[in-house]
From TrEMBL:
Its main location: membrane. It comes from the Eukaryota. The gene is LOC112214731. GO terms for cellular component: plasma membrane. Keywords: Cell membrane, Disulfide bond, Glycoprotein, Membrane, Transmembrane, Transmembrane helix. This is Tetraspanin 5a. The chain crosses the membrane at residues 77-94, 114-136, 148-167, 285-306.
Amino acid sequence: MYRHGINEIINEGLALCIIWKIMQLCGREERGEGWKLGTSETVTFFASRKHDSLERRYPRRCSQRVSPRIAPTETNIFLLLGVAFLGIGLWAWNEKGVLSNISSITDLGGFDPVWLFLVTGGVMFILGFAGCIGALRENTFLLKFFSVFLGIIFFLELTAGVLAFTFKDWIKDQLNFFINNNIRAYRDDIDLQNLIDFTQEYWDCCGAFGADDWNLNIYFNCTDTNPSREKCGVPFSCCTKDPAEDVINTQCGYDVRAKTDVEQKTYIHVKGCVPQFEKWLQDNLTLVAGIFIGVALLQIFGICLAQNLVSDIEAVRASCLFT
């Protein structure tokens, strides 16, 4: 029995030595902390050591965020307008049966105004999505895409402005070709027809350079083989309007080109749309220049904000890696 008691004392002593050695290795004595077996401090000690080890292996994600400098409200407006334009364009195509027959897109000889809504809506939606999600989620890829895409648009606008100023005669020839090409397809598409009528009514013009340009249309030409009732005529949008008349006379242009030049001036506008458009630009040069400068400044402002936000996000992420 005496030997058994000695063995127990030796075992307890060895256990205490082992525990003391573990405490020395863990550095507990340097912090002045005690340790009692079987108490909650033991669990806390091992839990804290495990937590420190996990933090060293798997650092916590940096919780610091960068305040978005691109206002989500502005990008949301881009998104909503983009969806609206796309919806209008798709609805117009559905009404014309284009969606049920995609190959009919190439059948139209002239310009389809629906493309304006689709392209504008698509660009606005892409820009709004990239700017909004990129700012809210601090996604540098989307923010860089936003700034690069906006920069490309700005560069194209600047190039178009320089070319239009440098090659005025070439621009006039292209505009003449564009209008005459759409005159040929005047009856082929209702949207194109409405666009031409609006242009001629707004600028008080007829044809590209005169009423005789409507001789290109199969319904309005003056050939002997033309059986149309509109032969040698022009659309009603070429006619001079009587302020006293509330109802538009859609047949006012019938046979008007069969009259003399002096008589034509009484019934229709004899000036072409290209010269009238050029005159309108000269009269409203300040307004047009102001609009272009304002749009350019907004684009530059958006590019700078996006790039600054990208720099801030990358700086914060870099600081998190070294803390």
